[in-house]
Amino acid sequence: MAAQLLLVGCPLQRARLRIVGVHCSTCILPVRRALEKAEGVKSVGANYMMDLILVDYDEKATDEAEIVALIKKVGYEAITLATPYF
Q1: Which residue(s) pair with 54 in the sheet?
Q2: Bridge partners of 56?
Q3: How many CB atoms lie within 10 A of CB 31?
Q4: Are 52 and 16 in contact (CB under 8 A)?
């Protein structure tokens, strides 16, 4: 479930995802780099200790399904979190 944000008049969505199989900060780095390069992604926050990644994205350019597919392409599974950790 994505949450809507309003930053500088631009509506963004926030995807909260649990990344399965991440054991250290090195593991999550390829996921983070791929997401940072993706069209429509505005920011990526990662916490490997919680297997959590937060992705702020422009819903006009991408969507949560594309973000999950990109994570899978990198080699990890992503589970959408309905409620935020924080």
Answers
A1: 16, 45
A2: 14, 43
A3: 24
A4: yes
DSSP letters for 17-48: EEEET--SHHHHHHHHHHHHHSTTEEEEEEEG
Q: What's the token pair of residue 83?
A: 């409620």
Q: Where are the domains of the chain?
A: 7-80
Which class is 7-80 in CATH?
Answer: alpha beta
Rounded distance between C-alpha atoms, residue 4 and residue 12, angstroms:
6
Q: Which pLDDT tens digit goes with each residue over 18-75?
A: 999 888 888 889 999 999 999 999 999 988 888 889 999 999 999 999 999 999 999 9
**Are 21 and 74 contacting, i.e. CB atoms less than 8 angstroms apart?**
no
Quote the CA–CA distance of 71 and 7 in Å, as a whole number.
Answer: 25
Q: pTM for the full model?
A: 0.81
Report how far apart the first and last C-alpha atoms of the chain are (Å, whole number).
14
